[in-house]
């Protein structure tokens, strides 16, 4: 090959070197072996029908449970009993016995009002006397 180069003119030699360099680049750009650290990339497969149905079921059940829990927590009406009559009777007895003065009696009724207004809007408030069982009772 060196003999051929000597006989060729300078421009032919440059073009030949360029073509040899491009051949070397082609050989380098396409590796013959893949390194062991990089496994051969497999073509991606579409998920199977069972996997797709399973994913749809899981997502559907999760969304349904979240919707039901949110509705129950923030929107569903619930019954709350407040024993106002018993509380007022207790405060009256304490006042008549001299355990409470006028200012303390007023503070206790303000506390009762604060407890009642702090109950969320999705709770129905009824008198504690009307409840037989299974209702949340709020004590002032």
From TrEMBL:
Protein name: Conserved hypothetical membrane protein
Biased composition (Low complexity): 8-19
Region (Disordered): 1-47
Annotated Basic and acidic residues bias: 33-44
Domain of life assignment: Bacteria
């Amino acid at each position: 090959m060196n003999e051929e180069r000597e006989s060729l003119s300078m421009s032919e030699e440059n073009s030949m070197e360029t073509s040899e360099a491009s051949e070397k680049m082609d050989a380098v750009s396409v590796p013959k072996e893949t390194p062991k650290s990089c496994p051969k990339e497999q073509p991606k497969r579409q998920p199977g029908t069972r996997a797709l149905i399973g994913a749809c079921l899981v997502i559907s059940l999760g969304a349904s449970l979240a919707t039901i829990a949110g509705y129950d927590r923030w929107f569903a009406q619930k019954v709350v009993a407040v024993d106002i009559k018993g509380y007022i009777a207790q405060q009256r007895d304490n006042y008549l016995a001299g355990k409470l003065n006028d200012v303390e009696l007023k503070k206790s009724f303000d506390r009762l009002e604060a407890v009642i207004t702090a109950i969320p809007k999705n709770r129905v408030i009824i008198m504690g006397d009307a409840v037989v069982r299974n209702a949340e009772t709020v004590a002032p």
